[in-house]
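Q&A log
Question type: sequence-to-structure
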Amino acid sequence: MKRRGRDERTLKMMANFMSHHEAGMSIPEIAKKYGLTSRAVYYRLDEIAEAAGVTRESLLEVIQPPRIGNNWYTKPVEKVNTAEFDEHLVVVRADLGKLQQSVRNSIKVCDDFEAAQTGGENE
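Response status: OK
Response body:
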C-alpha cells in the first residue's frame, strides 16, 4: 500500500530536486516535469531541504544558471593598446567640439531669426 503523496513521481522529484533547482528550474517547472502540482512540491520542501542539508528558504530562491552563448565573463580579456585608445579619444573629443560648435551656430541662427521677426525687441 502506497503512503499518500509518496508515489513514484514524487519520490523521483525529491531525489532529483536539487539538480533541477541548481540548474535554475523553478518549483512550478520542476512540478510540471514530474506531473505534480506545485503544491505537492512545496509540501515536500522541508524533507528535501533536510536531506540536502540546506534551508527551506534557500530552495525558494531562484538560481540563475550560467548562460550558454555570449558569456562575456568567461571570455579572455583582450589587452588594450593605450596609444591607439588615446588616438581614438583625440578624434572623439574633436568630433564633440565640432558638434558643440554646430549647436551653438544653430542656436545663434534661431536667435537671429527670432530677433529679425520681432524687430530686435528682445535684445
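Response note: The chain has a mean pLDDT of 84.
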